[in-house]
């Protein structure tokens, strides 16, 4: 089974900050990596697929990079609506899926 | 527009069976382009994939839950369902149904239900 590890588990940042979240896979997953944003009481929202492709309607301040085992989600300038929890998820073994543990982005 | 809606009991007793149904509208569950899955989230914790089904009935389960999980599809009702046996308090959480693409390189879980809270308690 593929295991996904995110870091950090939480971070504090200010509006306007550049934020980076990392995700590591336990084996090579090529670029089959997705990123989600989840706000309290809501279902997760797909932000990025195939490691770096922005889902339609997602602001361009979100970007993803990486391949193989190491991936990054970057928010170039944090906005008030971006305070949320972010999850990575591998789709290499689709339909068998696996999520990272999540990164909570809080207001400093 | 695609909509997924979970339904079922909100309270289940320990050792009993949790049963949920996801009703799909706005698309056919017989689409060859998607799997239909269940994901859960314990209170204050992260997301866990439970399993997925294809319209043909082929199923794929999380190995950690494999012995307790059954997912079925009913194409005539455009629904799929989840059964989780021998539940404990650790099975308490929000249960989501979702649609995900068959292509590993495409958008994965792009469509979700609103979630259904299940509490395991006597």
Number of strands of chain B: 11
Order of helices and strands of chain B: EEEEEEEEEEE
- What radius of gyration of chain B results from the CA coordinates? 14 Å
Number of helices of chain A: 0
User: Radius of gyration of chain A in whole Å, from Cα?
Assistant: 13 Å
What oligomerization state is this entry in? heterodimer
Largest sheet features of chain A: 7 strands, mixed
Q: What would you call the structural class of chain A?
A: mainly beta
Q: What's the rounded overall pLDDT mean of chain A?
A: 97
Write down how many β-strands of chain A occur, each being a DSSP E stretch of 2 or more residues. Answer: 11
Percent of residues in helices of chain A: under 10%
First-residue to last-residue Cα separation of chain A: 36 Å
Unreliable stretches of chain A? none
Strand residues, percent of chain A: over 45%
- Into which percentage range does the β-strand content of chain B fall? over 45%
The first-to-last residue Cα distance of chain B is: 39 Å
Low-confidence stretches of chain B: none
Could you describe the largest sheet of chain B, including whether it forms a barrel? 7 strands, mixed
Derived from helix and strand composition plus strand pairing, the structural class of chain B reads mainly beta
Mean pLDDT of chain B: 96
Could you state the order of secondary-structure elements of chain A as H and E? EEEEEEEEEEE
């Amino acid at each position: 089974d593929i295991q996904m590890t995110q870091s950090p588990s939480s971070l504090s940042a200010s509006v306007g900050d550049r934020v980076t979240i990392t995700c590591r896979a336990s084996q090579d997953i090529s670029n089959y990596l997705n990123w989600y944003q989840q706000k309290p009481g809501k279902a997760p929202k797909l932000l990025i697929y195939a490691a770096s492709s922005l889902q339609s309607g997602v602001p361009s301040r979100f970007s993803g990079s990486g391949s193989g085992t190491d991936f990054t989600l970057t928010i170039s300038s944090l906005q008030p609506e971006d305070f949320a929890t972010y999850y990575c998820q591998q789709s290499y073994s689709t339909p068998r899926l696996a999520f990272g543990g999540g990164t909570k982005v809080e207001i400093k | 527009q695609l909509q997924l809606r979970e339904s079922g009991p909100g309270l289940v007793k320990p050792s009993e069976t949790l049963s949920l149904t996801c009703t799909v509208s706005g698309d056919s569950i017989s689409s060859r382009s998607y799997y239909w899955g269940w994901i859960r989230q314990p209170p204050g914790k992260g997301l866990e994939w439970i399993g997925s089904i294809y319209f043909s009935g082929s199923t794929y389960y999380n190995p950690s839950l494999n012995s307790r999980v059954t997912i079925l599809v009913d194409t005539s009702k455009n629904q799929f369902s989840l059964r989780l046996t021998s539940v404990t308090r650790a099975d308490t959480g929000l249960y989501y149904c979702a649609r995900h693409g068959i292509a590993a390189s495409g958008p994965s879980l792009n469509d979700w239900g609103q979630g259904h809270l299940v509490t395991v308690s006597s």
